[in-house]
Amino acid sequence: MESKILKIKDFNAYYDDAQVLKDINLSILKNNVTAIMGPSGCGKTTLIRAINRMHDFTPNARMEGEILLNNEDLYQMEPIIVRRKIGMVFQRPNPFPTMSIFDNVIAGYKLNGIKLSKEDRNNIVEDSLRKSAMWDEVKDNLHKKGSFLSGGQQQRLCIARALAMKPEILLLDEPTSALDPKATAHIEELISELKDYVTMILVTHNIAQAARISNYTVFLYLGELVEYDKTNKMMTTPKDKRTEEYLTGKFG
Amino acid sequence: MMLKKKNIKINGDTIFKYAIGSSVVVLIMLIVGIFVSLIVYSYPTIAKFGFGFISGHTWDPVTEEFGAYPFLIGTLITSFIALILSFPVSIMISILLSEYLKSGVIHNYVKSSVELLAGIPSIIYGFWGLFIFVPVVREVQMYFGITPYGIGILTASLILSVMIIPYSATIAYEVISLTPSEIKEAAYSLGATHFEVIRKVILPYSSSGIVAGVLLSLGRALGETMAVTMVIGNSHILPDTLFAPGNTMASVIANEFTEATSDVYLSALIEIGLLLMIVTAFINVVGKMIIKKFSVGMS
Amino acid sequence: MADKLENIKSGNMGRGNLSFRIFKDRLFKIFVFVISGLATIPLLLILFYIAKMGIASINWEFFINLPRPPGEVGGGIANALVGTLILILTSSLIAIPPAIALGVFMSENKTKSFSKWIGSGVEILQGIPSIVIGIIAYVWVVRPMGGFSALSGSVALAIMMIPFIAKSTEETLKMIPLHLKEASMALGVPYYKTILKVVMPAGLSGIVTGVIIAIARVAGETAPLLFTAFGNHFMSYSIFKPMNSLPLLIFNYAGSPYDEWHSLAWGASFVLVVMVLLLNIISKILSKRWKVKF
C-alpha cells in the first residue's frame, strides 16, 4: 500500500466572487507522478498553486478547505516553510539572471540565509545537477551566468534548483509548454527518472504527456474533480462520460 | 534616370525635410557653441593659472588670484552628503511603491508627493530653507554648543538631499517594477520571505538601473544653484567642519557673476562654469547609457 | 550533512532561524513604510509654510501694485507677474519651433545610426546646469547688446526648454502606430502632409503636454535669469530692458533685511508654487482628456 503524502480536503477557491475550484478531495501518493489535466480554465493551475500557497500574492484570491502535508495543514503553517517543502517549476524557465549556474542551484539556501560549508555546497550542486541530468553539460561552466543555456537547459536548471532544497513534493506547472519537442522529451524523461527521489504533481494540457509520464491522473473540468485514477486505467477505460469526451478530443 | 531627376525636384517634401533637419543644426550649434564659448571666455584664466586653477586654495578678486579648490570641494561634499542621505530613502520609497503598495491611497499619496518634490522650483527650497529650516538648525547648533551659523555645508546638503529624492526614486521605482514576476515567483517557491526576495533577487536584478538613477541625481545635485546659494553661507575659505559656511561651484557663480568687473575675474567664474558643465555632462551621459542598456536587456 | 538537511526541513536553523527571518521580514516592511512616510514630511512642511506665510501677505493690491520702498506697506508684485508672463511667452516663441522640429526629426529617423548621437546631444543639453545656461546667455546676448535684458533671459530659458519639448515630442510621436502613417501614404498624401496633418494631430495632446511641463519647469528658474533678465523694481514691458520675474523677486527680497519685502517674497513664493502646480495639473488633465485612442 502506497502512503498518502498530500491530502486535499473539501477545497474551494475563489477569485473575487467567481468560484474556480469546487469541493476538491484528493490524496496524492508518495513517489508517484500525478498529472492534473483538463481544458484551459478548468482550475488546474489554481489547484497546483494552492498547494504551495503561491496565491498568497494574489489579493483577490480566497481559499477554503484543508491541504494536509503528512497530516499537517499547510494553511496553518508559515508559507515560507510550506514552499521549502514543496518545490515548484514554472511554465517558463525562470533562472535568476543575476546569479551563476552554481548560485542558481543553491539559490534556495542563499535566499533563506542558510550557511553551508563549501563541501556541502559542492555536494548539493553536483547532486542536484546530476539528478536533473545537467551535470555533464554544465560542470565546466558552473560559475558562468546561465544566459547562454538553451530553454530546455534553463528549465532543467530550474528543476535542479527546486531539487536542491530536497522538497518532499515537486510541483510542475506545464513545465514544457515553452519548450521545443526535443527539450520536452528530455524533461519528460527526467521526470520519469526523478520519481525515486520526489513526489511530483504535474499540470499539463497535453493528454499524451500525461499518458507518457504519469502514474496517476486527475481530470478537472470547470473547477470540479471529475475523475482520479491510475493513468493507464483512465486513458483506456474512463469512468465518467466527460473524461471520455475530453480524451477523445470532443472539447478543450 | 527619370526617377533620379524627380527626386531632386524641389517640392513640399524636400522643404519639409530641410526644415526639420535644420533643427539638428540648431542643436549641434547650441552644444558646440556652448562649449566653445565657455572655453573662449575662460581662456584668460586657463592661460594664466593652468591646472593651478583647480588646485589653488585662494580666491581673491582684489589681487586677481583665482583658485577654485574650495568650491570644488564644497560641490563634492554637499553633493555626496546629499546623495548618501537621499539614496536609502529613495530606495525605500521605490520598494514601497513597487512591492508593498502597488496601488491605493497611500501609494498615490507617496507617488504624487515625490512628483511634487521634483516640481517645486529650487528658489522655493532655498527661500523656505533660509527662513524656516535655518533657524531650526541654529537652535540645534546652540543646543550642542556649536557656533550657530545655521547656514553652512550641512544645511545645504540636507536641503539638497530632499531635492534629489525624486530623481533616484523615480528611476529606481521604474526599474524595480520591471523585475519579471517569474523570477520573483521562483524565489518565493524556494521558501524566501518577501524581504529576502527584495534583497537577494529584486535589488541585484535592478542594480544597474538603480546606479543610473543615482548618477542622474548626482548630476542634478552638482549643478543645483539657487537652494544651495541661499543657505550655504558663501565663504571662500575651505570649510573645516560640516557646520562651517562654504561655497559650491554653482553658488559662487550665482553670487559673484554680476560683481565681476575685470575680465580675469569674469573668466575665472566662466571657467568654473566650464568645469561644472564637463562633469555634469559626463555623469548624465554615463547614467543615460546605463539606463538604455538596462531597458534593452529587458526586452 | 544529513543532520543539517533534517533541520532545514523542519525549519530550525542556526543562522536562518525561522522566527528571526520572519521578524526581519516584518521589521523591514515597517522600516520601508516609516521611511517613505518620513520622506513626505519635508514636502508637507514646505507647502504648509508657503501657504501659511504666503496667503497672509496676499490681497488684491498685492497683484496690482508695484513693490514699495522698505518701510511702506501695501506693495505688490505686479511687475514680477507681468515679467514672468513675458519671459515665458518670449522663451516659448523661441524654443517651440526648433524643439518640435527636432522631436519630429528624431522620431522620423529613429532607426538611423546617427539618431543615438542626436539623442545624446539632447541629453547633454538637458543636463547642462541652469547657471551655465545663464553664463551662455550673458556672453551671447547681454554682452553684444550692452546690457541686461528680458530677451537674454528668454534665450536662456528657451535653451532649457528645447531638450524637454524635443524629447516629449519624440516620445509622443514614436507611440503613434505605423499603420496610421501608412494609411495616409497609401492615399497618395505626400510625406510632409502626412506628418503635419495625420501624425502630429494624433500626437497633439502629448506635444502640448510636453510644452506645458517645460513651461512649468522654467517658470521657477532663477539661476539663468540672475545675470540676464537681472530683475527690475519697476514695471517694464520691453524685452530689451531688464525685467523682473517671480523667482528673481523672491531671491532679491529674501536677501534683503526688510520685513515688508520678506512678506512680498512669501506671497510671490505662494503664487509661484500655485502656478507651477496648476501647470502640472493642467498637463495631466490634458494628456488624459485629449488622448487619441488607436
**Structural domain count of chain C:** 2
Mean pLDDT of chain B: 91
Number of domains of chain B: 2
Rg of Cα set of chain B: 24 Å
Assign the CATH architecture of the largest domain in chain B: Orthogonal Bundle
How far the N terminus sits from the C terminus of chain B, by CA atoms, comes to: 44 Å
Please identify, by name, the CATH architecture of the largest domain in chain C: Orthogonal Bundle
Average pLDDT reading of chain C: 89
CATH superfamily grouping of the largest domain in chain C:
MetI-like
Number of strands of chain C: 0
Radius of gyration of chain C: 26 Å
Q: What is the highest CATH level, the class of the largest domain in chain B?
A: Mainly Alpha
CATH fold label of the largest domain in chain B: MetI-like fold
Gross morphology of chain B is globular
Helix content of chain B: over 70%
Q: What topology, given as strand order, has the largest sheet of chain B?
A: 1-2
Walk me through the structure.
The complex is a heterotrimer of chains A (252), B (299) and C (294). Chain A is α/β, with parallel strands linked by helices and 252 residues long. The model of chain A has no long low-confidence stretch (mean pLDDT 91). A six-stranded mixed beta sheet of chain A has the order 6-7-8-3-9-10, with helices on both faces. In chain A, helix 5 (118-131) packs across helix 7 (151-163) and helix 7 (151-163) packs parallel to helix 8 (181-194). The two termini of chain A are 35 Å apart. In chain A, a hairpin with a 2-residue loop joins strand 4 and strand 5. Chain A has eleven helices and ten strands. Chain A has a single domain (4-247), classed as P-loop containing nucleotide triphosphate hydrolases (Rossmann fold, 3-Layer(aba) Sandwich), CATH 3.40.50. Chain B is mainly alpha-helical and 299 residues long. Chain B has two domains: 10-41; 46-298, MetI-like (MetI-like fold, Orthogonal Bundle). Chain B has 13 helices and two strands. In chain B, a hairpin with a 4-residue loop joins strand 1 and strand 2. Chain C has 294 residues and is mainly α. Chain C has two domains: 2-39; 60-289, MetI-like (MetI-like fold, Orthogonal Bundle). Helices cover 73% and strands 0% of the residues of chain C. Chain C has helices at 2-10, 18-39, 41-56, 60-64, 78-108, 115-127, 130-145, 150-174, 178-186, 191-202, 204-219, 246-254, 259-289. Chain C is globular, with a radius of gyration of 26 Å. The termini of chain C are far apart. Chains in contact: A-B, A-C, B-C. The interface between A and B is medium-sized, with 29 and 19 residues.
